Amino acid sequence: STHVASARGAAQVLVASNRGPVSYEVQQDGSLRTRRGGGGLVSGLSAIGPDAGALWVCSALSDGDREAVRRGVGEDGVRMLPIPAEVHADAYNGVANSVLWFVHHMLYQTPLEPVFDADFWRQWENYTRYNRAFAEALADEAAEGAAVLVQDYHLTLVPGLLRKLRPDLRIGHFSHTPWAPVDYFRMLPDQVAREVLEGMLGADRLGFLTRRWADAFTVCCTELTGGLGDTEVGVHGLGADAEFLRARSHEADVEERITGLRAEIGAGPSGAARKTIVRVDRTELSKNIVRGLLAYRQLLDDRPEWRERVVHVAFAYPSRQDLAVYRDYTAEVQRLADEINSQYGTPGWTPVVLHVKDDFARSLAAYRLADVALVNPVRDGMNLVAKEVPVVSDEGCVLVLSREAGAYAELGEDALVVNPYDILGTANALHEALTMAPEERAERAKRLSAAATALPPSQWFLDQLTALTGS
Ligand code: G6P
User: Fold this and answer.
1) Which residue CA neighbors atom 4 of ligand 1 most closely?
2) Which of 53, 74, 255, 410 has its CA 20 to 30 A from that of 214?
């Protein structure tokens, strides 16, 4: 490494994450188009904006990103690291998304199990290299005594590595995922489990989305590393950005998409408006989209009175398509939606309106039209959709919510709570949601919306910064 330990950068506050706030696409004419990054981490952190004066260090992910780095152009306050492709593939697809993500979401099911073979150990080496690239960039950019907020499971080794390079820094790490129970976590090879925990314990302060995940982490440390040492653990339940969402969801492009969606939803017998059950997710195994569709089919099966009168608006946006399990899952979602449509559909009624092309304005349009929001992950750090829909929906929607989502800790009392594996239970909850009396629905929606916005992203970030720097 060419890093010089005595060098000091200028940034007082730094954020580090794999995915950054923007990405670039090379256009036909060679110019670069800017796109907003996806996922909960970016939605949460984006609200901070360049105004906060923070420097955001992230990976160059697309060809456009790498081109932007090459041309030396890009947004103010963002530094993209051009990590070599094979290093990034091993760190991101291999270790982070195939192993750490699966462990924390407890997604392994026979025959899908972790295989820690020679390939894995090469990936692990590249994960370490990738983490070191972040640590070195942060060490170069950070001013004396600066605060560094490292994000998520991609970067678990950064706090420990950075601590060695720059003992003067205040280092925080935040997990946007659940944390695995110790019996599941120790599925990782001992060396990896220890390095992950010790890497994170290099931070002054660790943040989690709920008490449940913080406690699971603490138990892992008690059992596997001899405790937390001097590292503090805090809980910060990221909320929805009410002001931004309310304004954005009334812009012209959203209104336009509402018209389009209304046409797709159509009208029921004698022209009555159809009820809508809305879901918006990355096409992600933990989001449990397939069981959501099975529950909807069960509803149509058990209660024929809903046929022609309800539409399931399901947006399942592509995610991590380099991984075969994600591609297979995407295909299964599509197949099942088609099957339900051919089984129950009529010339004037499409039971499942499935869209797979990412479109934020259309997501907001669906939120506004939602009578019921279905959020049924098998495990989820928080789930921001559960918090966004109640804020945006025009009529105050009913939330059907998995007890395994982090959001359950804050919204559980006013949502209809389901066990995400229980298809019949979920179908019954959908029926209950669709038939809830208007007064009860309005009351619950009001409380959901208040709870969902209690900790807006800017405050969430500031709280962590204050706790880290003690000022
Ligand atoms: C989750 C993770 C984030 C990640 C997002 C999108 O929310 O906690 O770190 O950015 O998923 O996934 P992707 O792999 O596309 O970045």
Assistant:
1) 39
2) 53
